[in-house]
Design goal:
heterodimer; A: 411 residues; mainly beta; 18-stranded antiparallel β-barrel; 3 helices; 22 strands; 7% helix; globular; B: 259 residues; outer membrane lipoprotein receptor (LolB), chain A; 13-stranded antiparallel β-sheet
């Protein structure tokens, strides 16, 4: 890894002058991010230094962007990655983008409904900036644009799953098994072949009275279903072992989203229907603890600005069709989000509160934060992540309340 | 076509076409209507630098590119933020309608990689931390105020009408404005803004204007906020008028590409 980093820096220095001559834009940021748990351990939940670089150039016919990043953690661990690396070219009304890219769809904020193309990096749950939660996917994207109408087709030859936290991470999700399983990762990645590629379509319109988009896709669901295989002792007819095998299943999805101004309000909606998604089930009649069900996920939200205070709320519901007892998820799972944001001193200080509230388990993630623009391009941020409840999507992290500080310089 | 964004950015680009009006017996309402009715080019583009100066004299600089296109029913405007670095890549688009309905506005944030429709209700908010509110930068119709010609006055050798405008809406953010309008030309050269207590709150001064491509164009302006002891200087460069900006400039694609 260190060799790769040295190589990257050397190449950057070598090509810097060439890039300047070619009018390649170089931007990026340097950031320190320090977080401390508020429980009795007072452990640092994160000590991270980041260098994020973007090299880009756009002309009327072609363009490119490369976005390498470097994370340095407290234990001297280094992580070098490419958030995006793609080429653009334009032929009349067609725009082509080839390479690793983040593709973001939908109108919901902080939740992922029709936003199905780029998977998520959940190694620190939902806490990183959304730019860093989205994982780039190697794809070919074609846009046909006519006026305010846009047709988009995406083909991804490589399946990229959600990046999950390690089992010893603060953010490893709770999983309950009847006994400690042995893990079988033989199906946790997909072979590189045409059969395993993914396809997505989108039509979008942006107009004077409303915006909307229609989307669809045939792809692997980014989160694994855990298939459990029981090993029985033939003598006692008791379970003597358990094998857990994560696997990713194909799904077909169709959905859409819209936003429309109503007076001073912006009303947003988004919904998706999944034809066959796998869920975990605790039912002795099922052979591998998974079951396939159709599934609906939708959201309705409102945005409003009152005396310079930005207010936003969303109601999100997930519904498993033809529900059966024993499925780990509830038949209906309801979540709300709330956002309050205001700037002071001519955009030098921002005060923000964002919250997820799980209605089924009465749990929540509450995120107040202050951002101060110390100088142009340099900001200091501090905030809290409060988890409440005892179970559920947010309550499971009740011991992970934390305070953090970030210093970031953009150039 | 006639909707002149009098102050805003290139909206400060004011066109005159040699129209001459008699100064005799003219009233305040007629003067402000002539200011509002001055024809502009079909489209304008250029770069704007805003320098924000606080009471300690510290400066913050914002740079952006802007394109405006006027139509019979809708004026479209798109801005691409260039500096500072933490807002670079952000773009903002608004469509304003001649029938008086609310503007449509969208913002593209590169970190979110998504174009978002936003409420146009925040007209009293300050634009990018400057001393200009969105309303200051917009296109206020003369029918929204009562106008009175106070006097004629000469500023730096320029003869002006001095017009007091009082809003019909009592809840408007200013209790009145006083505008110095250049005689025969009908450009606003200076404007004072008064708060709800009748105290002088802000002053707008045009410092430089030139004729570009047949249109008078304001190139430097300054807004002083007396109550906050803060000011914002705006300067325009690379201004071009009637270059035939295509409709495709005012689309989601353009916002995401940042050009």
């Amino acid at each position: 890894m260190k060799f790769k980093i040295v190589l990257m820096v050397s190449l950057l220095l070598f090509f810097r002058n060439t890039m300047a001559q070619d009018n390649v834009e170089i931007n990026g940021f340097v950031r320190n991010y320090t977080g401390v748990l508020l429980n009795s351990s007072s452990e640092f939940s994160i000590l991270q230094n980041t260098l994020n670089l973007t090299f880009a150039k756009q002309t009327d016919k072609v363009g490119f962007k490369v976005n390498p990043y470097l994370f340095h953690y407290s234990d001297s661990q280094l992580e070098l990655g490419l958030r995006e690396a793609y080429l653009d070219f334009y032929i009349k009304d067609f725009a082509f983008r080839v390479g690793k890219q983040q593709i973001i769809w939908g109108k919901a904020e902080g939740v992922f409904i029709t936003d199905i193309v780029s998977p998520k990096d959940l190694r620190e749950f939902l806490l990183p900036d959304f730019e860093e939660i989205r994982v780039g996917v190697t794809s070919v994207k074609v846009n046909y644009i006519k006026g305010n109408h846009s047709f988009e087709a995406v083909w991804s030859p490589v399946f990229t799953p959600t990046q999950m936290p390690k089992s010893d991470s603060y953010w490893a999700p709770e999983m309950s098994f009847p006994m400690m399983p042995t893990w079988d990762y033989s199906t946790s990645s997909k072979d590189l072949n045409l059969e395993n590629s993914e396809a997505f379509l989108r039509y979008s319109f942006m107009g004077s009275k409303f915006d909307f988009e229609l989307v669809g896709g045939h792809f692997f669901y980014d989160d694994p279903a855990i298939h459990l295989i029981k090993i029985m002792d033939t003598a006692t007819m008791q379970m003597s072992g358990l094998v857990a095998r994560p696997d990713y299943q194909r799904v077909t999805m169709a959905g859409g989203s819209f936003s429309v101004p109503i007076g001073g309000l912006i009303f947003r909606g988004e919904g998706a229907y999944y034809d066959g998604r796998y869920f975990q089930i605790n039912n002795l009649m099922t052979s591998d603890a998974t079951i396939e069900k159709d599934y609906v996920h939708y959201m309705a939200g409102l945005d409003y600005t009152w005396k310079g205070i930005k207010l936003s709320t969303q109601f999100i519901q997930e519904y498993i069709i033809d529900y059966e007892d024993g499925i780990n998820n509830d038949e209906f799972e309801n979540t709300m989000t709330f956002l309050i944001k205001k700037d002071f001193f001519r955009e030098k200080l921002w005060v923000e509160l964002f919250a997820y509230v799980g209605l089924n388990n009465e749990d929540a993630l509450i995120r107040p934060r202050l951002t101060y623009a110390f100088a142009d391009g340099f900001e200091l941020m501090t905030g809290f992540n409060f988890f409440t409840g005892e179970e559920g999507r947010f309550g499971q992290y009740d011991d992970n309340d934390m305070v953090y500080v970030k210093a970031k310089y953009s150039f | 076509m006639k909707r002149l964004n009098l102050v805003f950015v290139m909206a400060l680009v004011v066109a005159i076409t040699g129209m001459k009006y008699s100064a005799s017996n003219i009233g305040g309402a007629e003067i402000m209507q002539k200011v509002y009715d001055l024809p502009t080019g079909d489209d304008t583009q250029g770069e704007l630098t805003m320098t924000l100066v606080n009471k300690q004299g510290e400066q913050r600089v914002r740079k952006l590119k802007q394109y405006i296109k006027s139509g019979e029913e809708v004026d479209k405007k798109i801005m691409f933020f260039m500096a500072p670095a933490d807002v670079k890549g952000t773009s903002f688009m608004s469509w304003s309608y001649s029938d008086g309905r609310d503007d449509d506005q969208w913002i593209y944030l590169p970190a979110l990689k998504r174009t978002k429709r936003i409420s146009s209700d925040g007209k009293g908010d300050y634009f990018m931390g400057s001393d200009f509110t969105y309303d200051d930068l917009g296109d206020r119709h003369p029918s929204e105020d009562n106008h009175k010609l106070l006097r004629e006055e000469t500023i730096n050798g320029v003869k002006c009408y001095v017009v007091e405008s009082t809003p019909k809406d009592e809840d408007y953010m200013y209790s009145k404005t006083i505008t110095w309008v250049i005689k025969d030309v009908y450009i606003g050269l200076k404007r004072d803004f008064y708060d709800e207590d009748g105290k002088l709150m802000k002053s707008l001064q045009i410092n430089k204007y030139e004729k570009i491509q047949g249109f008078w164009t304001i190139l430097e302006t300054e807004m002083k906020n007396h109550s906050k002891n803060h000011k914002t200087k705006m300067s325009f460069s690379n201004v071009a008028i009637n270059k035939g900006i295509p409709d495709s400039k005012f689309t989601e694609r353009s916002m995401t590409l940042g050009k």
